[in-house]
Design a protein that fits this description.
single chain, alpha/beta, Spore Coat Polysaccharide Biosynthesis Protein SpsA, Chain A, 10 helices, 50% helix
């Protein structure tokens, strides 16, 4: 299976190079796409400085969900590999461990869980292991998940919910020694706390939307699946009709005196 790594990034000029150095060292990864989500610093230049990395720049910051979907649409691969741009301690073996079950078709999606990196991120993952930006997933499945560009920080919950509702196989993979800075460390206490509250609000909004309409994502998936099936059926029917028409025309042309 072919693999494309997608790294959404917003104002990560000082941290993204370390992540890219690790991902580019893994032969299984065929292409690497950094989605520069309207950064106001040197994130684009930092990513472009790494050989073999393609940078997709969005005109304005639209949120993590939209950045991930933009990268997925741009990628041409069977499997999508997502990493946050601010990881600390990421090694090639972590990348390979995350990819292996999906590439071997033993799972539709894997999720990377921090362990042994630092106390605060370990605790966060212990209480909410599903909230992780580190994952591998089949591209065809990811692109079927509805409204990803609208959920913002609810993206991780949306992906997990969809995979669960469709009865697909998920595997959790321990990323030992990996962590990332807290928002308060990157932005300062005031801005960091505000950003964290925004993240929690968007996650809560997604949770509440599921309670109001718990089957909506499944219905949208089924509608899309039916549309695709109908399109394929129509194409096949048109092809058969054209083939029959051509055969009749050829047979008529071969008959004596048909001219």
């Amino acid at each position: 299976m072919t693999v494309a790594a997608i790294i959404p990034a917003y104002n990560e000029e000082d941290r993204i190079a370390a992540v890219l150095a690790t991902v580019t060292a893994v032969p299984m990864v065929g292409s690497i796409i950094v989605v520069n989500d309207g950064s106001e610093d040197g994130t684009q230049a930092a990513a472009q400085a790494v050989a073999g990395v393609e940078v997709l720049t969005l005109p304005k910051n639209g949120g993590k969900g939209g950045a991930m979907r933009a990268g997925a649409l741009h990628a041409q691969a069977d499997v999508l590999l997502f990493f946050d741009a601010d990881l600390i301690g990421l090694k090639p073996c972590h990348v390979e461990d995350l990819l292996a079950p999906v590439c071997a078709e033993d799972a539709t999606m894997t999720m990377g869980i921090f362990r042994g990196g630092r106390l605060w991120t370990d605790m966060a993952q212990f209480f909410a292991p599903a909230i992780t930006g580190q994952r591998a997933i089949r591209r065809d499945v990811f692109l079927q998940i509805p409204d990803l560009e609208k959920v913002g920080y609810g993206i991780e919950l949306a992906i997990n919910d969809y995979v669960h509702r469709q009865g697909l196989i998920r595997r959790d993979v321990t990323l030992r020694g990996v962590t990332h800075p807290m928002k308060e460390e990157k932005l300062g206490w005031a801005k960091g706390a505000a950003s964290r509250m925004q993240m929690y609000r968007q996650m809560l909004r997604f949770r509440l939307s599921l309670r109001k309409n718990p089957k909506s994502s499944t219905k949208r998936y089924q509608q899309k699946t039916n549309q695709k099936a109908n399109q394929k059926a129509n194409q096949k029917a048109n092809q058969k009709a054209n083939q029959k028409a051509n055969q009749k025309a050829n047979q008529k042309a071969k008959r004596p005196g048909s001219n």
